[in-house]
Design brief:
Oligomer: single chain
CATH topology of one domain: Surface presentation of antigens (SPOA)
Structural class: alpha+beta
Number of helices: 3
Largest sheet: 4 strands, antiparallel
């Protein structure tokens, strides 16, 4: 037997041993029991997220203008927005629309009265 044939035999034995070990490992595999996780966990503690700060903003409307026109704005200039007078404002939390409302003045301070809350399902639809 030549050295080359001897090396081939060693490789063949090693491959056979590896295949045998892999087959034995597959036979020993254990699987976890499938559990129905569709029920909400009643022990969820929301306290950990209640103090996380978020940015809330109210948007009257939007527009696009060129830098040239932006630089020409001065006191008294009027910028036309994409909304009609009387339309509700958008309430955004971290840039995501969550509600619409109308402007109110209470004790000489502006506020917003929420008139429509966007459901989580509608928010997901808008992401697509």
């Amino acid at each position: 037997m030549s050295d080359e044939e001897n090396v081939d035999d060693v490789w063949a034995e090693a491959l056979q041993q590896q295949a045998t070990e892999e087959a034995a490992a597959v036979g020993k595999a254990s699987f976890r029991e499938v559990v129905d996780d569709s029920k909400p966990d009643t022990d969820v503690n929301l306290e950990v997220v209640l103090d996380i700060p978020v940015n809330i903003s109210m948007e009257i409307g939007r527009t696009k203008i060129s830098i040239r026109n932006l630089l020409q704005l001065n006191q008294g200039s009027v910028v036309e927005l994409d909304r009609l007078a009387g339309e509700p404002m958008d309430v955004l939390v971290n840039g995501t629309l969550i509600a619409r409302g109308e402007v109110v003045v209470i004790n000489e301070k502006f506020g917003i009265r929420l008139t429509d809350i966007i459901s989580p399902a509608e928010r997901v639809k808008k992401l697509r």
